[in-house]
Amino acid sequence: MTPLRHLLAGLAGCLLAVLATAGEPCRVAFDMGSSGIRAGSTGRTEVPRADIDYLAPLTAGRGLAETLPATTAALRDLPAGAGFASDCIRVGGGFSAWRLAAGDNRQQLADDLATLYRDTGVAVLVIPQRQEGAYGYFGARQLLGPRLTTSHILDIGGGSLQIAGQAQSFGALFGQKLWHRRLCQALGRGDAMPCQLQPLTSAELGQARHLLQQHLSGIGRALPQGASLTAISRPVTRGVAPAVAHFFNRSAGIDTLSPAMLRATLELHAGLDLAATASQLGAAPKHAAYLISDLLLVEGLLQATGNHDLRVAEIDLTNLPGLLADDHAYRWVAQYDCYLERLRQSGIEAYDSNPATCARH
Prior knowledge:
There is one protein chain. This protein has helices spanning 3-19, 55-59, 68-82, 96-120, 129-144, 176-186, 202-215, 219-222, 234-247, 259-270, 274-281, 285-288, 291-305, 320-324, 327-331, 336-346; strands spanning 27-32, 36-41, 49-51, 89-94, 123-126, 152-156, 161-165, 170-172, 229-231, 256-257, 310-312. The protein is an alpha/beta fold. It has a six-stranded mixed beta sheet, with helices on both faces. The chain has a five-stranded mixed beta sheet with strand order 3-2-1-4-5. It starts with a helix and ends in a 15-residue tail after the last helix.
């Protein structure tokens, strides 16, 4: 790492503390993902949350309208319930589900965000995947410290996955649930979520791997050569890794996964029905139903990135530390009407534009 990189990393680590000092306005941020909202504030450790399923109506073609009442309540109630100061500047970061909504109908999304702002005072921004990756790595370094020995983290959410590094990241709307749904459709298992993938034939496994190669082909161009990975999210830490540990009789768990381990575990469970897999692993069928697609996804990611192993370290990662430190995001609060107009015109790229170029009224 260059001296400049060291300096920048040190400055970033201090930024949250600086924001909380006297003379600076306090900030509240909302991490708005595919399955709910988490709130945080400068100088506070509480992270209250509300569970809201944004993916179900989106993937059914209904948009986000039916989620607005619950979203409005969460944006109002979470800070108050945690005792956050009422005069803080408030910004929401809309991630995978909100990017999907922008792609489907950005005009309607802008109208929905205007309604949320009117009713709650929260300026919700649709955050590009690249910026989410930067937030992820920022938060992981804070939580893992010297335990983070790889150049990138692998974060598989419900709607998106990201491989996030300090300077270069890859992201796609291809998280656990969206990939599972796509695989179910490709193999003729229907549209139910989750579907029953098991048992799978050898031919179907080959079809699934080919589908993954197509969807993950851009990773090699997005990441630097030799990028190494630490998986930090539950589809790996509480799904894939325990299944591999069970297969290899590792009672103490496992902190490194190899392609050979993944392949052996996958081939065993692919031939079983769901009830047998759930029984072996002591898991509820609704959770075990994602194991096959999760194993395939992690195997495909290792192949696409050229990694021979994957480190595993569960953390409760949110986008809150990065969002709270994002001065650019908070500058949009004073120009939120302008942001919404640019969202209507250019979609997700509105976030990257310059608030200072908005007309003053």
